[in-house]
Amino acid sequence: MSNYENNKRIAKNTTMLYIRMLLVMIVSLYTSRVVLQVLGNEDYGTYQAVGGIVGLLVFINTALSQGTSRFLLFEMGKRDSNRLAKLFSTMLNAHVIIALIIVLLAETIGLWFVYNKLVIASDRMDAAIIVYHLSVVTAFVSITQTPYSAAIKSHERFDLYAYTSIIEVVLKLVIVYLLTISPIDKLAFYALLLCLLSVGVAMFYRVYCIRHFKETQYNFIFDKDIFKEVTSYCGWNLFSNISVALSTQGMIVLINMFFSGTIVTSISIATTVKNQAKGFVDNFRVAAIPQIVKKYAGGETEYSKHLLLETSKYSYFLFILFGLPIYLESENILSLWLGQIPDYSPIFLRIIVLTAIMELFTSCMFTTLDVVGKIREYSIIYPLILFATFPLTYFFYKIGMPPVTVSYVMLVAYMILAFIVMPVLSVRIAKYTLNDIIQLYVPCLKVTLLSVPIPALAYMYLPIDNAFLHLLIITIVSILSIGVCIWYVGLNNDVRTLIMSNVKSKLFRR
C-alpha cells in the first residue's frame, strides 16, 4: 500500500473517529449535567471516589493492554498469521488471570479502604458499597475485553466504534431518563445501568471480533515465549502505569479523604470537559498510530518518524483550537452547561487544560520510544516524577493547602516530563535528532505565542454580559486567531501548497 493510500486511510479513520467523538461529547455533556442534578454533588462525588478505588487496581491491566496492542500491530506488520493467533490467545488467558487477581484485591483490600478511609455519609454507605461491587464487575469485563479491543484497533476498524457509539449514546440517554423516573435509590440504580451497558457493549465487540478476525477465535494456548516477550516489554511499563493510576484515580481518592464529595465533583466535572476536548486530538493520533507502528515494523523507519512528528504537531494545533476557548471561558462554559457552578470548578478546569497540553507532548514523545520498543528508561523516570506528586499533594493537604493544590502539582510534574525528560529520551534512545525535536516544539510554541494575545484581550475587554454571546464571540476570535497563525507559522510551504491544490481541485471539479 502506497504512502498516499495510507494517508487516505488515516484520514478516513480519523473522520469516523470524529463522528464518534462528536456523538459521545454531546451526550456526555448532557448526561453529566442531568446526572449531577439528579444525584446531587455529594452522591456524584461518592460515585467518582468509589470508582476511583477500582481504577487504582487496574494499573496492571493497563500496562499489559498497551503491550498487547503493540505486539498485535507488529505481528500484523510481519504478516505471520500463526504467531498472531498464538499471541491473541496467550494474551487473552493472561488478561483473564489478571482480572481474577484484581477482583480478589478489590473485594478484600479495596473494600476495607472504602469502609474505613473514604469520607462517605453513613446513610449513603449501603448505596456506595453497591456502586463499588458493580464497579468491580465492570472492571472484570473491561479487562478481559482488552485483547478484543486491541484486535479491532490493529485491523483499523475504527468505523465500528463510530457505528457502535450511535447505539451506545442512545442507550445512555435512556439511562438518564430511567434515572430521573426511578423510584429506587438513584445512585445504586445509575451504577447498575452503566454496568449493564458496559457488559452489553463488550459482548457485542467480542462477537464481532470472533466472526471477522480469524486470530480472535479462542484456543487454549499459553505460549510461554510469547508471554515472556510481551511481559518483558510490559514490565518496564508497569511502574509508569502505577504512577498514572496514582495521579488520576488516586488523587480523586486523596481529595475525598481530606474534603467533601462536592470537591471531588468539582475536579471530576473539570476533567470531563478536558477529556471531551482532548478526545478530538486523541482520535487523530489513534488513527495514525497503527500506520506508524506497521511502517516501522516493515522497515520504513524514516516515513514512520515523519508521520509521527507531523501527527504530533497537528495534534497540538487541534488541541489548542479547543483548549484556548475553554481556558478563557471556563466560568461561562460551566455556567451554561451546569447552571450552578461547583466550588473550585473554573480554576480546576483552567489548570487541567494546561496540564493536558503537557500530557499531549509527553504522549507524543512516548510514542517515539514505544515504536522502537525501548521504554526502560522512560518507565523508571516517568513513574518517579508522578509518584512524587502523591506524597507531595498529601503533605500540602496536611498543612492546610486548598483543594486546587493537586492540579498545580500535576501541572509542574508534566511540564518537567514534556519539556525536559521526553525530548532527552527521544534523542538518546529513539535516535531522534535535536532538529527533529525542534521541528515539533518550535512551531507549536510560535503558534501559541502569536495566537493567544488577541483572544485574551478580547476576553478581558469585551463589553458583553450575556454568557452565551460572550462565549460565542471569544470562541470565534480564538479560532480565527489560531487558524491564521497555524496557516502562516505552523505549516510549511509544501503543506500549504498541497492543501490549496486539494481545495482548488474540489471547488473547480467538473
Labels describing this entry:
510 residues; mainly alpha; 17 helices; 87% helix
Task: Please characterize this protein's 3D structure.
The protein has 510 residues and is mainly alpha-helical. Helices cover 87% and strands 0% of the residues. It contains 17 helices and no strands. Helix 1 crosses helix 7 and helix 2 packs parallel to helix 4 (125-154). The longest helix is centred in the N-terminal third of the chain and has 55 residues, at 3-57. It is globular, with a radius of gyration of 23 Å. It starts with a helix and ends with a helix.
Helix content: over 70%
Q: What can be said about the biggest beta sheet?
A: none
Rg measurement, Å: 23 Å
Q: Distance between the terminal alpha carbons, to the nearest Å?
A: 29 Å
Structural class: mainly alpha
Low-confidence stretches: none
Number of strands: 0
- What fraction strand? under 5%
> If you average the pLDDT, what whole number results?
79
SSE string, helix = H, strand = E?
Answer: HHHHHHHHHHHHHHHHH
Number of separate helices: 17
Question: Given the C-alpha coordinates, what overall shape results?
Answer: globular
Question: What can be said about this structure in brief?
Answer:
This protein is an all-alpha fold. It contains 17 helices and no strands.
